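Recap quiz, item 2
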Amino acid sequence: MKLSKTNFLIGIVITVAIVIALVIILRTAVTTDKKTTIGNIFIYDIKEFSKTDPNLIKYKEISKIKTGLQNPYAITTDSSDHIYVTGDKSIKIFDAQGNVLSEIKLNDSPQCLTIAGDGSIYIGMKEHIEVYNPTGKLIKKWNSLGQNVVITAIAVSGDNIFIADAGRKIVLRYDIFGKPKATIGKRNPDKGIPGFVIPSPYFDLAVAPDGLLKVVNPGLHKIEAYTFDGDLESSWGETSIDIRGFSGCCNPVNIAILSDGNFVTCEKGIPRVKVYNSKGIFDSVVGGAESFADTVGIYNPAETKEDSTKALDVAVDSKDHILVLDPVEKTIRKWIKNIR
Amino acid sequence: MKEEKDKLSRRDFIRSGIRGASLLGLGGILGLFYNRARASDLVWQLDPYKCIQCGKCADNCVLEISAVKCVHNFNMCGYCRLCTGYFNPQPNALNTAAENQLCPLGAIKRNFVEDPYHEYTIDESLCIGCGKCVKGCYSFGNGSLFLQVRHDRCLNCNDCAIGRACPANAYKRVPASQPYLFKGKA
């Protein structure tokens, strides 16, 4: 029986097809990862959001200053670039190089502080203000600001003292004698004021070079600009875990303002320090989550028992150096702009 | 003569011995009952401050669906608009769409309270105690969500299978009269 040419060709085609199919099947079996691409849906993992694009980092860390405090909590600077850190019922004062200049012992744990133009040190305790002169002598202790007060930030501009009260979710303006002048930020839909949303006790403020009071509204992921009389002028901030936005229940936790009006922001959850321009447009990253991986870090109780509620604080000096208070490392970490 | 009177007779000695042994036996029986009663008054519970949200509570309970459930301390909750225990890390929008929810079982219910506050409640019939929401809440927020052994379903095994597997040694016996270990102010 003679094989026809057509049948011969069909046989070759079928044989080749079978060989190719076998090769594909065997190759797939050998090389394909047998894991599904879905992953374990029962595991909470935000590590993928903690990677920072190196092109966005425009600052470099140049030094660290050990605070010597067990629980450093807040940081600020004065016009001489001296650095003030609160913690352990005291205030430690450093020069710009990190040498300890003095230490002021207090009766209670300070929550925040700021330095007035004349060098007076304004300290916010839980519900009252204490004023010290530059040598550390108590000048004045204000009366309690009231029940349910939780002071988290304080700023001085001229004769005005601004106090952030996270307990009652308002900002209070006082004169330097402790006389109340205005209440700022109370919810008022008619005036377009949304009211402060403060799920955890982080509620910061600062006075900007444009003369407006900038207040963080952490629950709304916004920074709001108010006149000293309490009119809301503008706000900015985007809710997003992306590097350009703020995420979690309440971010940013702390802010500082550079000499050009740009903002430095600190976040918790995914700890990162970023710079936004004066209009709130994202500019750059100072330190991404990688910079704090071994300190504040991302919450991972299986690896560390570190308290995830500890948050970074930030201050800037006259040269626009950025000083980040790392409460876990207990250091002041200094960043400068990376000029390429 | 007096010496004779003070001397213990054999009969008295045996009688006293029997009395003493009876009292000892009675004490032992009472002690045994007390211990048994005390043991049955203890139940297993998970210390929320030791819990590391490893997920083993969901897998290791002898029950088909774990007796461990997420519970919520409303006193601690911030009633957040963006609850990181409810939403996945990068939600499309802050609404109740399934793709935005962190819980794989959809066991957390989000109810509007007033702008911008929302209340989050746990549907225990859906919760398997994986702790994913607990970790999400604590990563960014106050940690008001936490895991507890629910005693309406726990079998109170002598040797808790989850406790044996717990890498954080977070399981312990607590009095049945106070069977829960709350975070913050309960």
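The mean pLDDT of chain B is 90.
Residues 109 and 121 of chain B are 5 Å apart (CA to CA).
End of item.
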